């Protein structure tokens, strides 16, 4: 199921949009903290953002630039501003489309569908099957994007690295046997070299190191691997 994030400080408009989109099968998330729109975006991991320009604290142009640092997710601006310059600025800041208030809900739906189709293809909804976010002590694994986020930084994982980390996160601080990991990651274990798992673990460690997390994936000799939440032990936490 596609997830649509609505960043609109007018509660009535936000609820109308959410209710209408939900009728057509979309999962919606309303931004609650307008001082941390990026944080809410990273936690919700939407496939599409409806973004107002006039927001408390920082405007939509600012937040679109922040989102673009982390993601290419489509962004549709919604605003009462109707000047050509505002629309040009919206597109220059990374927006994909622009809607002027007051707008037709049918047009919102049509533009949302078009943006999702351009970004993910006709059959992306069936392929994705609503892959959620896994979180542990502020470390976020976005399975739908294949990305890992921590402390404002993000790295992208290969499908095998993503699945490996998913298993370790779900059994955090527990030893997961090598044979079990082999069977989960590869359909035909008989033709997989045992060293292949070691290579993928090494690559995952490097990706974690890029985020500043070192030593979290522990080799338990003769048993398997364990993910220890060392990133949760920072002195400032």
Description:
The protein has 237 residues and is α/β, with parallel strands linked by helices. The protein has two domains: 3-128, Response regulator (Rossmann fold, 3-Layer(aba) Sandwich), CATH 3.40.50.2300; 133-233, Orthogonal Bundle (Arc Repressor Mutant, subunit A). Helices cover 42% and strands 21% of the residues. It is built from nine helices and twelve strands. Helix 7 packs across helix 9. The longest helix is centred in the C-terminal third of the chain and has 17 residues, at 194-210. The two termini are 34 Å apart.
Which helices and strands appear, and what pairs or packs with what?
Elements (H helix, E strand, L loop, with lengths): L2 E5 L3 H13 L3 E4 L6 H8 L3 E5 L7 H11 L4 E5 L4 H9 L4 E4 L4 H16 L3 H5 L4 E4 L2 E4 L4 E4 L2 E4 L2 H12 L4 E3 H8 L8 H17 L6 E4 L3 E4 L10
Parallel strand pairs: 1-2, 1-3, 3-4, 4-5
Antiparallel strand pairs: 6-7, 7-8, 8-9, 10-12, 11-12
Helix pairs in contact: 7-9
Q: TL;DR?
A:
By secondary structure, the protein is an alpha/beta fold. The protein has helices spanning 11-23, 37-44, 60-70, 84-92, 105-120, 124-128, 159-170, 178-185, 194-210; strands at 3-7, 27-30, 48-52, 75-79, 97-100, 133-136, 139-142, 147-150, 153-156, 175-177, 217-220, 224-227.
């Amino acid at each position: 199921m596609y997830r649509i994030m609505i960043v609109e400080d007018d509660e009535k408009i936000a609820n109308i949009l959410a209710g209408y989109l939900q009728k057509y099968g979309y999962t919606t998330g309303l931004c609650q903290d307008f001082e941390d729109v990026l944080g809410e975006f990273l936690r919700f991991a939407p496939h599409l953002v409806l973004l107002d320009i006039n927001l408390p604290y920082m405007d939509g142009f600012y937040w679109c630039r922040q989102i673009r640092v982390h993601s290419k997710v489509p962004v549709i601006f919604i605003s009462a501003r109707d000047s050509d310059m505002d629309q040009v600025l919206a597109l220059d800041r990374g927006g994909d489309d622009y809607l002027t208030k007051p707008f037709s809900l049918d047009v919102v739906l049509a533009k949302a569908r078009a943006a999702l189709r351009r970004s993910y293809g006709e059959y992306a909804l069936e392929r994705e099957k609503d892959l959620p976010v896994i979180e542990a002590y502020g470390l976020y694994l976005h399975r739908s994007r294949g990305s890992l986020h921590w402390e404002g930084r993000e790295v992208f994982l290969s499908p095998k690295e993503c699945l490996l980390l998913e298993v370790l996160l779900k059994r955090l601080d527990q030893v997961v046997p090598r044979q079990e990991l082999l069977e989960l990651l590869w359909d035909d274990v008989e033709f997989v070299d045992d060293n292949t798992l070691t290579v993928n673990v090494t690559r995952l460690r490097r990706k974690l190191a890029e985020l500043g997390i070192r030593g979290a994936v522990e080799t338990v000799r003769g048993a398997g691997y364990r993910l220890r939440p060392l990133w949760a032990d920072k002195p400032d936490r």
